Amino acid sequence: MQFQVPQFIETEDKIVGPFTIRQFLFIGGAAGLSFLFFFMLKTAIWAIITIFLMGLSFALAFVKINGQPLVKVILSALHFYWRPQRYVWQPENPKLPKDESALKSLAQGKFSLENIVSGTGLKNVWQNLQTGKKSISPAGLLDSLKNEKYEIFSRKTGERQAGRRIDYR
Q1: pTM score of the predicted model
Q2: pLDDT tops 80 at residue 111
Q3: Sequence-ordered alpha helix ranges (H) in the chain
């Protein structure tokens, strides 16, 4: 038995001409307020308020940031700033001693001049100290990476990053 699967379920229907109902309500609401202000305010003040209202309504109706409507972005920002922030960090291995001897045992030859200049040696040691992982020798690391494939990709921000490629075949 075959079923039809609905497609394009994320697109809004065009209800009023070329506008969706949400877009029409934003623009219509601003036009209605502008109409009321025309009779209540002087012409110069009415023109300034109308330009501001119509600009805001068009922004709320049409602007999308990272695929999200501007209204949703504004509401998310308000929720973020209104609610208290609490960041809790818990190490994977809290019983690991965090003193010089533990740091030296985790380093195990990672402090070559090349690693120190590039900053990777210190970063790896610090991550190993925080998470409680044993360090891997460079030869063992190369053997483990030999079978893995990496690809360079660009994020939406333009930042380039290497990512491990996984083929599911």
Answers
A1: 0.47
A2: no
A3: 21-40, 43-62, 70-82, 100-107, 113-118, 120-131, 138-146
